[in-house]
Model the fold of this input.
Amino acid sequence: MNIEVIKFGGSSLADASKIKNVAKIINQKTQNETNVIVVVSAMGNSTDTLISLAKEMSNDPNHREMDVLLSTGEIVTSTLLSMHLNYSGTPSISLTGTQAGIRTDDVYGRAKIAEIDGSRIKEELKTKKVVVIAGFQGFSDKQDVTTLGRGGSDTTAVALAVALKARICEIYTDVSGVYTADPRICQNAIPLKQIGYEEMLELATTGARVISARAVEVAAINNMPIIVKNTFDSKQSGTIIQTESNMENINKVRGIAHQQKVGKITIKGVPDSPGIASSVFRPLAEANIAVDTIVQNSSSDNLTDLTFTVSIEDLVAAEKVSNSIVKNIGAKEIDSADDVGSVSIVGTGMTSSPGYAATMFEALYNKQVNIEIISTSEIRITCVVKQSNVTKAVQALHDAFKLDVE
Ligand code: ASP
Ligand code: MG
Done:
């Protein structure tokens, strides 16, 4: 079977006329011999609306109920789209995550896909229907509904593409692909024709919101090519994410990612002895808090400061855990900040060329942007800066690395 999985984000499905527009794109796809599986997000910001409603019911809504509630957002779009496809002459059926056979673990709100039983989907495809699947959800061993975490529909799409051996996974969104920087804050950002998995993963984990990092990870492991395209300008070729073959791109900065807000925590007066770092980061991991940048200063008088960043959503929980850590390890106190953000440059082969770090720091210095924390991977350099400097920093780096010419 020649299968394509195509996914539409919430902004592409934000109202009835947009849903009809999506149906048109799907109609065109079915003109050739392609079997189409569609994965949908919830309408516009409806997931946020559901979360606010739940918080009006309880300040800590029951996680099981929350997942059932949030899963309904995607069920709304899948059913509406399927209705219109059928009405406009394209036979279609909608399936919830459970009906589509997407089995997950039982971690509500952040479930991981364990296995996909694609038999129902294949049955429907055989009858020449377009199968529209509600993204972002699955079911646990207890037959409870689970959700995959914010932005989880991308992961649904890529995982389905892998499980059903699709040719490709197309992600439709409201911009024309993966840009050299966020086009909303960088005027001369341009879409990339292609990018490798590794670079895309670094960009996505450090703030590029065009596709979720988890989806890129699943694609990379399974070598599934992804195309990111614009729903409102589907003639544009978009960006292909795949194993990088273009040697020319080595040693170039490919893109800049930013996070407008991150949370920063410093544990002060930490005793400098073996095992301390693990006693700090184990409890954070157990609380399901992902830590980004970690810096440990050199110690004086056998005491050191340990600073790390977390996503802004996790800051309150991280503060709570850190306070209990302080007591356990005999540290002094914690200091937390929510007025910082981050900027990152990403490109393969960066480590072999030390000039990149210098150029980055110079560009920031020229704009009087103070760097609070620096962290690096083989193909990325990230600087934590004040929130008020993030936009300025992105533009300065885009200019310094001349990313407006491909
Ligand atoms: N609707 C969910 C969210 O807003 C999942 C998604 O859009 O992929 O996070
Ligand atoms: Mg969404």
